Amino acid sequence: GENVEQHPSTLSVQEGDSAVIKCTYSDSASNYFPWYKQELGKGPQLIIDIRSNVGEKKDQRIAVTLNKTAKHFSLHITETQPEDSAVYFCAAGFGGSYIPTFGRGTSLIVHP
Amino acid sequence: GAVVSQHPSRVICKSGTSVKIECRSLDFQATTMFWYRQFPKQSLMLMATSNEGSKATYEQGVEKDKFLINHASLTLSTLTVTSAHPEDSSFYICSATTGSPSQPQHFGDGTRLSIL
After folding, report:
1. pLDDT beneath 70, residues of chain B
2. Which of A37, A47, B72, B84 has the fewest CB atoms within 10 Å distance of its CB?
3. Which positions in chain B touch A99 (Cβ < 8 Å)?
């Protein structure tokens, strides 16, 4: 089955800096890669996703890149703000009976 | 955007009690719903996948007689933790999807279950 590795497990940045979280996956059949943000005591919320026919996608301060050859994808957050502090999960899966595999999560801390 | 409502948000009960958690998709038809368990500072552990009108598919190591799942309609799935014990204390999260290829899951806000 699919195996998703996520790094780093903890990321601490100063407000205004950029943050990058990286994930690798093992199954070349995976074609859908969502990113979720989970705040304390809440469920994960989808923040951005990318499909395998696209190499990069951007939504305001958030961007995701995908390298299918290397089987890795990354989340980029620019101009970080304290409210960006949360746990971020990447996931990988494929169409049809979509059951994604999640990474272990990255705790992002943005210091004011 | 798509909204998934999970209820209750928190349950505290005595050992031996059965607890039911509801997961509702409010503005879309959820062909498939997922139930996850999350331990502190850890990732989401998939417990089971349920498709409307059929029996749930449980992940290896998850006791189906312990965690009863019902997905009787396109907007509602329930998870019942039967005869709960302290080791069942955890954060349980549901998610729902339309089932179309490459459609995202939409998560509820989770249920914090504490068994005394």
Report:
1. 1, 101-102
2. B72
3. 34, 46, 49
